[in-house]
Design brief:
- The chain is of the alpha/beta class.
- The chain has two domains: about 10-260 and about 370-385, Alkaline Phosphatase, subunit A (3-Layer(aba) Sandwich); about 260-365, Gyrase A, domain 2 (2-Layer Sandwich).
- Helices cover about 30% and strands about 20% of the residues.
- It contains 14 helices and 18 strands.
- Helix 8 (about 180-195) runs parallel beside helix 10 (about 220-240) and helix 9 (about 210-215) packs antiparallel against helix 10.
- The radius of gyration is 20 Å and the shape is globular.
- The two termini are about 35 Å apart.
């Protein structure tokens, strides 16, 4: 397993370097591979986040590509290695321990339910949390890093999510530009760099489709390799369009992927008596599940889970992972203990674990992330100057 780096070799440190280079006050040490001084001459800094593009995939399938030729090294994601946690780090400069978003599904006492913080709806019935009287500011504690930058911030994101509750909160004062496809992604990112006023800019450009296809088809699939080829060509086209604009273009990802065979996809219902010990459905991810156990039965749950899972997972008290630094340093979110539950199931090898609630359509994720394997944890650092 790969431990997340928060002191100079991780995603939170990349954000710190970019924040400092854009005239902000970073919350954590800078990235050792990219000190802020290395970006001082750029009139615009562009951060391209390719959701799901792990460093292992890039080095395995991208030899000689536009992205791989400009790869400067690798850094770790945060823990869990998942979009809700890692993208929030890139939007805020905070560790998961600070911002408090710990997975696709999280127990939110503020909403009195298990919910998905990115689409902002409850688990199962998918009821919008606004219908429960909950606002984004009630769940999202960390402020946008864009609000503290001297450079003009612009976020480029897919039209389907550009105005989501999550994005509106975390983009802060940044202008938002929407696109519909890969050509639009390149066009809107170029336009963001060249748009008036012509002072220093920080452009944050996010591409989600690589992640979606990796979940559906597996990260080793022909569909994902074709997506990478198209994305890599688009990255090259973006650099050509920005030639002479004095930009520093930094590309990275929120996490990587690994593929799980159907036989490696475990269901909680198959574990004798385990689900009956829980107060709520599983939270987190299929690769790292947070368990909220009935009072006084944690030891029993750990024993039963350990006996059933064997070498397929590590069964750890969540508080121990927090104390051991897996979620990072900084001021602990006031409801963090609630959000990570009593026990964490950290899956080994390629195993996943899932339960199902009423209203959920059963589906198998071939590609998965959230765990601590090198494939999930390591993301590339790509740097280009125009």
């Amino acid at each position: 397993m790969v431990r997340p780096e928060y002191s100079g070799g991780g995603l939170v440190n990349l954000v710190a370097s970019l924040t400092e280079a854009c005239g902000g006050a970073p919350r954590h040490p800078p990235l050792s591979l990219l000190p802020a001084a290395a970006l001082s001459g750029a009139r615009a800094i562009v951060l391209v986040i390719i959701d799901g593009l792990g460093d292992h995939f890039l080095r395995r399938h991208g030899v000689g590509s536009e992205l791989e030729r400009r790869r400067q090294g690798a850094l770790t994601s945060v823990f869990p290695s998942t979009t809700a946690s890692a993208i929030t780090t890139t939007y805020t400069g905070c560790t998961p321990r600070e911002h408090g978003l710990t997975g696709w599904y999280t127990l939110f006492g503020e909403a009195a339910c298990v919910a998905a913080p990115l689409p902002f709806h409850s688990r199962g019935d998918k009821l919008p949390l606004r219908a429960r009287g909950v606002r984004g500011a009630d769940l999202y504690a960390a402020l946008s890093l864009f609000d503290g930058l001297a450079a003009q911030p612009i976020v480029v994101s897919h039209r389907s999510i550009i105005d989501s509750e999550y994005n509106r909160h975390h983009c802060g004062r940044a202008a938002r530009r929407a696109y519909d496809d890969l050509d639009g992604f390149v066009r809107e990112t170029e336009a963001a760099v060249k748009s008036p006023p012509h002072g220093r800019k920080f452009v944050y450009a996010y591409w989600p489709e690589f992640d979606a296809l990796s979940h559906r088809h597996g990260c080793e699939s022909a569909e994902v390799r074709a997506q990478f080829a198209a994305l890599d060509a688009a990255f090259g086209e973006l650099l050509r369009r920005l030639a002479g604009a004095e930009c520093a273009v930094v590309a990275s990802a929120d996490h990587g992927f690994l593929d799980s065979a159907p036989a490696e996809s475990l269901e909680l219902a198959d574990a004798p008596g385990l689900a009956a010990l829980l107060r709520y459905p599983l939270c987190g991810e299929r690769r790292v599940a947070f368990c909220h156990v009935q009072p006084g039965r944690v030891d029993e749950f750990i024993a039963r889970a350990t006996d059933w899972l064997g070498e397929r997972a590590q069964v750890r008290e969540s508080r121990v992972l927090v104390e051991d630094g897996w979620f990072g340093a900084g001021a602990t979110h006031p409801r963090f203990a609630e959000r990570v539950g009593d026990v964490t199931l950290l899956m080994n090898a390629c195993y996943t674990i899932k339960d199902w609630t009423p209203g959920e359509a059963r589906h198998l994720h071939l590609g998965n992330h959230g765990g601590a394997s090198a494939e999930e944890m390591m993301v590339p650092l790509v740097i280009a100057k125009t």
